Amino acid sequence: MATSEQVAGSEVRVLARGLAILKAFEPDNRWRSNTELAISTGLPKPTVSRLTANLTEAGYLVYSAERASYGLATSVLTLGFLAASNRDLIVVARPLMQEFADQHNVSVVLASPDGDTMVCHEVVHSRSMLFTLRVRAGSRLQMGPSALGRALVGSMGDAERDRFLARLSRAGAPGLAELHEHVKAAITQMKQRQYCIAAGSLEQGTNGVAVVIDTPQQPHSYAIGCAAPTNTLSVTRIESSVAPDLLGLKARLEAEINATSAQKES
Questions:
Q1: Where is the secretion signal located (predicted)?
Q2: Architecture of domain 4-72 in CATH?
Q3: Residue 78 — pLDDT band, cuts 50, 70, 90?
Q4: Taking the model in full, what pTM does it have?
């Protein structure tokens, strides 16, 4: 029977091997097969295959069937990997977000999934707003109440969504019951409109809307949305003017991200 010290040592070795897999990815090598990872890390290929499967299940890697390779998921950004790319996006997004916030008199949030929450990378407010969301860069939002979380889940394919919801369930994620309640509506909204509205759920008396941002590394890597009090941001106003402009902001950001990525690869 293994002693506690032996078990602890085994767990440390597994962790070290998992980190070795993650460290094998570099800006110039965003996608790597199990064979390439085995060569890079010096680990046996069967071990690499088990580790990449576990890291994908945990949300740290994404698998591309087209490339037959793995890439880093956005949750790894919180550990410091590819932080420069994240800063590039924020630098590009910040002035566009402020322009949008001032135009529509709203608060605007850029976030990405991390574990069972959405972590906020940038938050801006209209300069003429009397009320602002109690959210700042670094804040974490529950998936269920936020338009950001619902847009993310609604944009996923069926298999990816099932795995994601199962992972949230195992983690006992807060707000999961509310998310399940709105999943079908989120899927419908994202398929038909490409945006998701959350009325009065993130904070009492506020409405919000969000879209997802696709990057060259991963679809729906980020979500960007806005919110304001219901007396200034009605669902009707969202549908008629705010959401269409938010889709325009999404297109501008994705074009900037793709151009920056192409320059780095050339």
A1: none
A2: Orthogonal Bundle (1.10)
A3: low
A4: 0.70
